[in-house]
Amino acid sequence: MNPDINVRIFFAMNYDNRPIGIFDSGIGGLTIADGLIQLMPQESMIYFGDTQHLPYGDKSAKTVQRYALGISEFLLKNNCKAIVIACNTASALAFDIIKEKFPEVKVYNVIDPVVEEVIESKKSTIGVIATRATIKSDMYAQKIKKLNPQISVISLATPLLVPMIEEGFHNNNVSHDIISSYLSKVELSKIDELILGCTHYPLIKEEIKQYYKGRVQIIDSPTIVAKRVSNDLQKCEMLSNSNEANYQFYVSDLTDSFEASAGRFIHYSNIQLDEVKLWG
Q1: Cβ distance 45 to 37 under 8 Å?
Q2: pLDDT at 192
Q3: Average model confidence (pLDDT) for the chain?
Q4: Percent of the chain scored above 90 by pLDDT?
Q5: How far separated are the first and last CA of the chain, in Å rounded?
Q6: Under CATH, which number does the domain 20-110+223-275 receive?
Q7: Taking Cα atoms as reference points, which of 218, 197, 179, 193 lies closest to residue 87?
Q8: What is the pLDDT of residue 12?
Q9: With 0-12 CB in 10 A as exposed, 13-18 as middle and 19+ as buried, what is 198?
Q10: How sure is the predictor about 138, in pLDDT bands with cuts at 50, 70 and 90?
Q11: Going edge to edge, which strands form the sheet with 247-251?
């Protein structure tokens, strides 16, 4: 070959225009959907909120796994190329089972990306607030300790926060009192960072930041998870190149309150919830 000849080699990029499936026990996982839409506006998405059975945080592992598998089957029947478990409880209790049951699809949870983000920050004491089931699973502490045994992890169940947010109580005296009651617990008094271990909690992130007044760094999942999914799909050449992304939103039990509340969780003006009964 003549060394003076410039040779350009073009590699064809593969694309996958199938939608990304996202599910949660309710509409809190719309915060994860919002993160994905903001970072990947070209991606179509199907969201399923299991409002018939929320909250997952007070249910047994077997029950959560059964619901999660049923929703995953629904998303796969709708041709999803990936499943994002936008629920900390289901991520803790059903992630491995979904991966084993459906090896043909990419599956992501909301715990692993956050854990890796915390490890990189190199803080010494990490707090976690979440539902009872997520805290009982001890998944955050186990994963953090596995990667860095020197980090101290303080976990606290905060069961009133989800119903508080679902009912629209935030940025008022009710939410201030409940948040303060939890965060003032002595267990959390010496933390450097706080993981918001529930996808509802980004809606009260600013109130939590106000409580700590800059003393504690707040870690929530939407942006972190969106970056993980985007980077991974890019490596696997599974990103969409569509100019017309389509968003579908389903719930298992449609009520006026959920439809009215959905817009608070996502920066998307045309959201419309449709009811799908997966369990009769």
Answers
A1: yes
A2: 95
A3: 91
A4: 74
A5: 69
A6: 3.40.50.1860
A7: 197
A8: 57
A9: buried
A10: very high
A11: 106-108, 82-85, 20-24, 45-49, 247-251, 273-275
Q: Is residue 276 over pLDDT 70? A: yes
Of 131 and 76, the one with more pLDDT: 76
Mean pLDDT of 164-175: 85
CATH code for residues 112-221: 3.40.50.1860
9: left (phi over 0), alpha (psi -120 to 50) or beta: beta
Every domain range in the chain assigned CATH 3.40.50.1860:
20-110+223-275, 112-221
Output the DSSP codes for the chain: --TTS-----PPPP---SPEEEEESSSTTHHHHHHHHHH-TT--EEEEE-TTT--GGGS-HHHHHHHHHHHHHHHHHTT-SEEEE--HHHHHHHHHHHHHH-TTSEEE-SSHHHHHHHHHHT-SEEEEEE-HHHHHHTHHHHHHHHH-TTSEEEEEE-TTHHHHHHTT--SSHHHHHHHHHHHTSGGGTT-SEEEE-STTGGGGHHHHHHHHTTSSEEE-SHHHHHHHHHHHHHHTT-----SS--EEEEESS--HHHHHHHTTS-S-TT--EEE--S--
pLDDT of residue 10: 52
pLDDT digits (tens, 9 = 90+) for 213-236: 999 999 989 999 999 999 999 999
What is the rounded distance in angstroms from the CA atom of residue 136 to the CA atom of residue 118?
20
Active site residues: 87, 198
Kindly report, residue by residue over 174-199, the tens digit of the pLDDT: 999 999 999 999 999 999 999 999 99
